Amino acid sequence: xxxxxxxxxxxxxxxxPQGGAVQRSLHSLGFGQVEDVRIGKYMELTVKExxxxxxxxxxxxxxxxxxxxxxxxxxxxxEEGVIQ
Amino acid sequence: xxxxxxxxxxxxxxxxPQGGAVQRSLHSLGFGQVEDVRIGKYMELTVKExxxxxxxxxxxxxxxxxxxxxxxxxxxxxEEGVIQ
Lengths: 84, 84
Description:
Chains A, B: Part of the FGAM synthase complex composed of 1 PurL, 1 PurQ and 2 PurS subunits. By secondary structure, chain A is an alpha+beta fold.
C-alpha cells in the first residue's frame, strides 16, 4: 500500500484571485505582514500495489485528472508500505 | 522573508464527498488501485519578518481564517530567509 501526497499549484504566471481574497482577509484581521498568498490543492491518495510502477501511475493520474496542466503544476510524494 | 506552506485537511471523521468523486473518476479512468482519496487545501504564503514570532503568527492565521477547526486540521512548514 502506498500513501501518495499530491500538491497542485497554479502556475506562477496565472492570476490567483482566491489567494488575493485570502490575503486581503488576513490584512483586515491584522496580519499586514503577509505579502502574498497562493492557493493550491492538496490530495492524499491511498493506492494499492500493482504490477505497474507507482511513479508512472501517479504521474498519469495527475496529468489526466488531478491537475490541469494548462494552468497548474503538480508535484507528489510517495510513501511506501503504509499500513491502513 | 518567510515562505510558509500550510496544509489543511478534513478531520478523519468527516466525510469527504469531493474525494469520493475523484476516486470514482480515477476508477473510471482505469486507476482501480486507488483505495481512498482525501482532498485538502495547500497554501503558500510569503510573510515579512516582524517582531512577532512567526510560528505564533502562522498558527493564529490558521486558527482564525485558513482552517475551520471544527472540521479541519492544519499543519505548516516555515522556510526562513527566502529571497523573492
